[in-house]
Amino acid sequence: MEFKSWIATPNFKQMIMLYVKEIVALANSSGGYLLLGVEDNKEITGCTNYDLQNIIESVYDRTMPNLFTRAKVVELQGKDVIVITVDKSNRLCGISSGEYYKRLGKNSKPYTPDRMEETFDEENDYSSRVINQSCVDDINLLEVYKLKEKLKTRDLQSTLVDLDDISFLKDLSLLVETEEGLKINVAGLLFVGKETSIQRFLPQVAHQDDR
Question: How far is it, in rounded angstroms, from Cα 211 to Cα 151?
Fold first, then answer.
């Protein structure tokens, strides 16, 4: 559960970006609830002049893949609190600007390429599973570019961004050298795969996105 003030940021666009960051982090973790109109110290200050449909659509437009969230209003201490329900995602979710976040305890932390690599090493039971029918043509080069740009801004000393795309993905353990050539694994497909390839190889994920 995460609390966010409604009154601290009067600019709606800036406010939505703060909310989207938390929603993405929850979706990339175990899911949860975002309560708008509650301060960090749990003081209820409430929400005014809101449009639930506009909030839901703004979250959808600013996330990739587009996230469907549910919102309702609960009256607490005579004030309106907006409760946004965020489901755990089966795909890596990010902000449309190319930023990724994940919950670490009670806080949301940037989910950078180096952290991705650590996660893949730890959770290699499914995410590292090689998709034997895949090839380099299943890679979305735009997503690779976004990963490089994100790493470049987060770690000025990193030499990963200087590598060619194939070497970059291999170093992040998203692309695997096999006897039959280069193959993308499940994690690689979720991070940098083409939409058509995800629908082909992981139809259960594509189905979740259509909900």
Answer: 32
